[in-house]
């Protein structure tokens, strides 16, 4: 049995541009992202922390680390999912996010769940 199949959290991402929160003329673009974590592994695990790298169109990177997600430390048994929505602000209309969640399994094993890069993009308007 491989370690990967025992300790596996899959991450799904949906994004949304928030025009009512944004002010493009002031260089403020606000996005919501909804994350769904699925425990596809064989052992229960608790999410301990997160690490994000948020990059805007100019190449500026914000690094975010912190405990849990939205004030929670979800516990996922095999087959269970946890969904939450959060947000970020960029100084450009396009950017990307990627990162990892740090988890601990019931047997004490610490492991990471990868958040593959995803794009944040405000609709372009023609003048």
What is this structure, in a nutshell?
The protein is mainly beta and 127 residues long. Helix content is 3%, strand content 59%.
The CATH top-level class label: Mainly Beta
CATH superfamily: ApaG domain
Query: Which class best fits the helix and strand makeup?
Result: mainly beta
Shape: elongated
Task: Describe the 3D structure.
The chain has 127 residues and is mainly β. The chain has one helix and eight strands. The longest helix has 4 residues, at 3-6. The mean pLDDT is 94.
SSE diagram, text form:
Elements: H1 3-6, E1 9-17, E2 29-39, E3 45-56, E4 61-67, E5 75-76, E6 81-90, E7 94-105, E8 110-121
Question: Tags for this entry?
Answer:
127 residues; mainly beta; Immunoglobulin-like; five-stranded antiparallel beta sheet; three-stranded antiparallel beta sheet; 8 strands; 59% strand
């Amino acid at each position: 049995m491989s370690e990967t199949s025992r300790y596996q959290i899959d991450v799904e991402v949906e994004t949304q541009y928030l025009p009512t929160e944004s002010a493009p003329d002031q260089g403020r673009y606000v996005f919501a992202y909804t994350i769904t974590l699925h425990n596809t592994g064989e052992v229960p695990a608790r999410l301990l922390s997160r690490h994000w790298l948020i990059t805007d169109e100019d190449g500026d990177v914000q690094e975010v680390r912190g405990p849990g997600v939205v004030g929670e430390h979800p516990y996922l048994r095999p087959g269970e999912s946890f969904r939450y929505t959060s947000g970020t602000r960029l100084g450009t209309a396009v950017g990307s996010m990627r990162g990892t969640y740090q988890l601990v399994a019931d047997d004490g094993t610490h492991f990471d769940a990868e958040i593959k890069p995803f794009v944040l993009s405000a609709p372009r308007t023609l003048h």
